[in-house]
Design goal:
By secondary structure, the protein is an alpha+beta fold. The protein folds into three domains: about 15-265, Nucleotide cyclase, GGDEF domain (Alpha-Beta Plaits, 2-Layer Sandwich); about 280-365; about 380-474. The protein has helices spanning about 5-20, 60-65, 65-85, 120-145, 190-200, 210-215, 270-310, 315-350, 355-360, 360-380, 385-390, 395-400, 405-415, 425-435, 440-450, 460-470, and strands at about 20-25, 40-55, 90-95, 100-105, 105-110, 115, 150-170, 180-185, 205-210, 225-230, 235-240. α8 packs antiparallel against α10 (about 360-380). GO terms for molecular function: adenylate cyclase activity. Pfam families: Guanylate_cyc.
């Protein structure tokens, strides 16, 4: 580059930044092509559903495959993606090796009435992509490309997008110089769709709230509300997986990558708030433990100094013990608060029933229950006492068909509760089938014999025995 070249670039940049940006609304059901865009600040504005599909772990795949194998994988992947997007009324635009962008616009008739929604097109394209990957592409890759198979994450968002041309045409002094131009898709919709694709697990479709809101009713049943973090930013929406086309029963069995337990986990906003509160209490516990360690070290030094100066070792030890006991009392107080908070979170399942239980999710319930048991033991409770106080777990376990665990809570309540037993027929049915219903009957009869049940509650406990025997069939 010489000074003349610099001056030309400087003038061109000045022109670009001074020009007013003009927006042109698109009325076609397809976005503009590169040939339709002009080399100026004139942009096309469209309302579109943007879909990104991305091969998971493509770096690992490339590092562990020959270059010739990757040519086959990428060419097959690109061809499949373009075909699926086209056949669902969209176009593909950005090709980034292991990543492709599809664009979908509402189809309208001559009266400007929407005949097919952009979001419906995008969802059907995503379903087509998942179907072809698991029932066709992976089959051929496995047979013809050294046993390789792939899995992809798909992200979709809907909103306004601006399309503009970038780059430059040829060179004035060389008419044979190729044009280096492309178009860029400006706006949060494109960025968010890309992020949703990054956050989607293998075999999963992650869509934004705006996509879900715009879907036709026939497509809304398969989705689960979800929230995922990328860095410090929270992305909320809906997810589903293995969402194939309706004809897959004719295709045999899908070929897909085994489940990866390291993929991101969904969490509802309510759960995120609850877990955040638990983490805050955990941090307080850690801080108290640190303070206790510092206090013990301080006591040790003070004791040494007192011995050296005043030879009052006994008094110093008494003071040290008192401080330590007080610190331990404070620590236990925090533990009790921690335990009570978890119990309160579990009690919400009793108040809100299955909607709340389902939003929490089984994996987080297991984590919360484990924390409950650890905290309860730490404050001196027995396992029976912990289970009796957490009686709402009967509903949680029952919802996830964990009948053995639900029955275990019922037996613990029979041994300890003075009021009632959180009853669930399905758990007792499981106990009868597995020949352990005697545990519940034995626990109640023992309580009745040793008069440990309040007088006004004895009849209700006898009724439980009758209910068990009735389920057993006699």
């Amino acid at each position: 580059m010489n000074k003349q070249d610099f001056d030309k670039i400087d003038e061109r940049l000045k022109s670009i930044t001074e020009q007013t940006v003009e927006q042109i609304e698109i009325k076609s059901d397809l976005p503009p092509t590169i040939e339709q865009l002009e080399d100026n600040n004139k942009t096309y504005a469209i309302m579109a559903a943007i879909l990104f599909i991305d091969i998971r772990k493509s770096t690992y795949l490339t590092e562990n495959s020959q270059a010739k194998s990757m040519v086959k994988i990428y060419r097959a992947f690109m061809r499949m993606a373009v075909d699926c997007v086209r056949k669902n009324g969209g176009v593909t635009r950005q090709f980034l090796g292991d990543r492709i962008m599809g664009v979908f616009i509402d189809s309208k008739n001559e009266n400007e009435e929407v005949t097919e929604k952009a979001v419906d097109k995008a969802i059907n394209a995503a379903r087509s992509l998942q179907t072809v990957i698991d029932y066709s592409l992976n089959k051929h890759l496995k047979n013809n490309v050294n046993g390789k198979i792939i899995e992809c994450g798909i992200g979709i968002d809907y909103g306004r997008v601006l399309v503009t041309q970038v780059g430059m045409y040829g060179v004035e002094s060389d008419t044979n110089k190729e044009n280096e131009v492309d178009c860029v898709w400006v706006g949060n919709t494109t960025n968010h769709a890309s992020k949703y694709s990054d956050l989607a697990a293998g075999g999963e479709i992650f869509i934004s709230n705006s996509v879900y809101k715009g879907l036709s009713e026939e497509y809304k049943e398969v989705w689960t509300e979800s929230a995922k973090y990328k860095g410090s930013k929270l992305f909320q929406g809906y997810v589903t997986s293995a969402y194939y086309m309706d004809f897959t029963e004719e295709l045999g069995h899908p070929i897909k990558v085994e489940d990866d337990s390291t993929s991101g986990r969904d969490t509802s906003q309510q759960l995120a708030d609850g877990i955040k509160e638990i983490e805050t209490l955990q941090n307080k516990l850690i801080q108290r433990e640190r303070e206790l360690a510092v206090l013990e070290e301080k006591i040790k030094k003070e004791n040494q100094e007192l011995n050296r100066k005043y030879n009052i070792e006994y008094s110093a030890k008494v003071e040290a013990v008192e401080k330590k006991n007080k610190a331990e009392e404070n620590l236990k107080s925090v533990l009790i608060t921690y335990y009570n908070f978890i119990n309160t979170l579990i009690d919400k399942s009793f108040c809100y029933k299955y909607d709340f239980i389902e939003k929490i999710g089984l994996d987080y319930w297991k984590e919360i229950i484990q924390k409950l048991y650890l905290a309860g033991v730490a404050i001196g409770l027995s396992m029976d006492e912990i289970k009796t106080r957490a009686h709402s777990l009967v509903d949680v376990y029952g919802f996830y068909d964990m009948q053995e665990e639900a029955y275990d809570i019922m037996v613990a309540m029979a041994r300890n509760s003075e009021v009632w037993i959180s009853w669930r027929d399905s758990a007792v049915q499981w106990a009868c089938k597995n020949s352990v219903s005697w545990k519940l009957i034995d626990a109640i009869e023992t309580r009745l014999k040793n008069d440990s049940i309040p007088y006004d509650k004895r009849e209700s406990f006898k009724d439980y025995i009758v209910k068990v025997k009735k389920i057993r069939g006699y």
